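@channel sequence for tomorrow's demo:
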Amino acid sequence: MGENIEVKDELKSKVEFKQLNLIKKEDFLFYKDKFHAAFCRNVLIYFDDRSKLTAINNIANTIKSGGYFIVSITEIINGNRTTHFVGEKINGIYFCRKK
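structure tokens (generated this afternoon):
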């Protein structure tokens, strides 16, 4: 087996990459309740508390109820900051499940 991993074409066709400004609400309006999961790894640590909360709220609005927001350990979301998620830890990975 080689060292490279390749994603199957049928999965590739379902993936879309976009550049969005995490604190601009208008960048996220098109994606309301569209995704089952969002990944934000080592990004929120660079935001001040106000901008971080804005980014979390924007991302939360794109995730369907019951979907997940996956963050790194350094970005664990404090329940006092947002009411969108319930924290879960599975195999050492912290997940935020949308209510």
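heads up for whoever presents: The two ends are 41 Å apart (CA to CA).
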